[in-house]
Every structure is written in C-alpha cells, then in structure tokens.
Amino acid sequence: MEIKKIEAAIEGILFAMGDSVELSKIAKAVEHDEETVKKIIHQMMDKYEDIDRGIRIIELDGAYQMCTKNEMYDYLIKIAKQPKKIALSDVVLETLSIIAYKQPITKIEIEKIRGVKCDHAVNKLVEYHLIKEVGRLDAPGKPLLFGTTEEFLRNFGVQSLEELPTINPVKIEDFKAEVEEEIQLTLDV
Predict the structure, then answer these.
(1) Dihedral sign from CA coordinates of 76, 79, 80, 86
(2) 85 conformational bin, left if phi > 0, alpha if psi -120 to 50, beta if neither
C-alpha cells in the first residue's frame, strides 16, 4: 500500500472511531508494522499542524485520536450546544491529584492522605469520566482501585502520565511541615 493510501486509511479509522485507537490496532488494520505506522501518524500530525486545518491528531498514552483544533471552538459553539463546563472544586481537584500521582489507589488510601472522607469527590470524578475503576486490591474486602482515564489526559493536555509535573522535594517537606503544624494546632485546642 502506498503512503497516501495508508494515510487515508488511518484518517478514516480515526475519524470513524471518534475515540482514541491503539497503535497496534491501527497497524493491524493497515497491515504494516507499528514503527512504520507510528512514523506515518506523526508525519500526519505535523501536516495537520502546519496547514490551516480544523482538525488535528493527538497521541494519548500510545493511542491516537482525531479531534478539533482548539482554535475552532468559537465556530463550533455557533452550531453545537454549549458544552457543559466542568468546574472542579478544591476538594475534587485535590482528590484527582492524589489519584493521578498515586494510581492505582483505593478510597481508603486517598482518605488516609486527605484525612477526610472522599466518596463525593471520587463519585464526581467518575461522573466526569476523569477517573475509573481499574481493578480490585488483593486484600480483605477487595477494595476498588482507581486510576485516571484518557479523558483526564485530554482535559489536562498531556499525552501520558509521565508528562505530569514533578513535585519539588523541598515543597514536599514544606507541605509535611504545614500538615504537622495544623495537626499540632488541632491537638492543642
């Protein structure tokens, strides 16, 4: 198959599927090795970014998805209903941060870190499709394990969890000191 036909096939697959498609599945469909298909997709990504097109291809943890460029939002909004904008409260955002950095993690582990119940925050994050159940811990009661989703990657503009910012070790020590100080103040009251 010549490159133009492979590109057309990949474009058709990504457009029709709507969601992200794993590289291995695309390679199998176009009957080429993954490395070649990955190079072709990245060339397509560059082409879409270079020319005035309303779409682009994004990579999400080893999978690819065709989506609308951010600059097209104003035009889309005139046609479609305004999408529901998710506003994350501090509690929900804090819970999401813990899950993103510690996944897979149980509610009990999240509560141990936060010091309070997290049922509402976890339920909201599942509702927003930012986290999902990823299995069960092999422990008494078999508690659910939670992890982030592709929707999380899309919303936060990262291709994989490795792109999440690292926390400065000095900051971590500052946070620990603040928490210990707050605990001491609570005990003194």
Answers:
(1) positive
(2) beta
Condensed to tens digits (0 to 9), the pLDDT of residues 85-144 reads 678 888 999 999 999 999 999 999 999 988 889 999 999 999 999 999 999 998 888 999
- With residue 103 as reference, give the H or E element that holds it: none
Count the Cβ atoms, other than its own, within 10 Å of residue 66.
22
Q: Which residue has the tokens 């000095």?
A: 170
DSSP, collapsed to helix, strand or coil, labels residue 76 as helix
Report helix angle 23-30 to 34-50, nearest 10.
Answer: 100
Give the span between the Cα atoms of 86 and 67, in whole angstroms.
19
User: How far, in Å, CA of 85 to CA of 129, rounded?
Assistant: 13
Round to whole Å and give the CA distance between 3 and 41: 11
If 0-12 CB within 10 Å is exposed, 13-18 middle and 19+ buried, where does residue 37 land?
A: buried
Measured CA to CA, the distance from residue 4 to residue 32 in angstroms comes to 14
Q: pTM of this prediction?
A: 0.59
